[in-house]
Structures are given as C-alpha cells and as structure tokens.
C-alpha cells in the first residue's frame, strides 16, 4: 500500500486491485490501518488519483503498467505457493 500511495502522490492515476472486499471499501472511504499512511492515501483518494477495487478486469481495462504484489507463502521445503496468481 505504501508504494501504491506514493505512486498516486507523484501524480499517477493508480487502481489497486485487492481480494478483500471490506479492506477495499474501508480504504476507499479513507480508513487505512497503517500508521501515517492514511494521510497520504486520503489525499490521493480525494484527488481521484488512487482507487481500490476488487475487479481484476477493471484493473486491466485501462492499465499501462501492472505491478503484482501478492502474498507468496513458502512451504517448509522452500517451494513457493503460487495460489494467488491463479485467480
């Protein structure tokens, strides 16, 4: 979320796709659970440069650049769990 907010603060229009509907709703309403990040996010959301959505298609429709920041838990043997990529 820090990277997303920073990109929006520097003038980019950013659409962040998340899978947790309540987190998307809370963030779009300005409720951020990370210290000091709420100030930056609230400013960029109000300016229309930052929006969160649960729609992957909405993210692809207008994207020029796509970043993936997904959880990637590892198994005990060190292998990666790619479940997040198989949405």
From TrEMBL:
InterPro entries: NAD(P)-bd_dom_sf (IPR036291), UDP-Glc/GDP-Man_DH_N (IPR001732). Residues 2-80 form the UDP-glucose/GDP-mannose dehydrogenase N-terminal domain. GO terms for molecular function: NAD binding; oxidoreductase activity, acting on the CH-OH group of donors, NAD or NADP as acceptor. PANTHER family: UDP-GLUCOSE 6-DEHYDROGENASE TUAD. This is UDP-glucose 6-dehydrogenase.
């Amino acid at each position: 979320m820090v990277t997303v907010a920073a990109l929006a603060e520097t003038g980019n229009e950013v659409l962040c796709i998340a899978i947790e509907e309540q987190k998307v709703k809370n963030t779009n309403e300005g409720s951020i659970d990370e210290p000091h990040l709420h100030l930056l996010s609230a400013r960029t959301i109000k300016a229309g440069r930052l929006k969160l959505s649960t729609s992957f298609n909405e993210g692809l429709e207008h994207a020029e650049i796509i970043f993936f920041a997904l959880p990637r838990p590892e198994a005990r043997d060190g292998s990666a769990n790619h479940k997040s990529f198989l949405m």
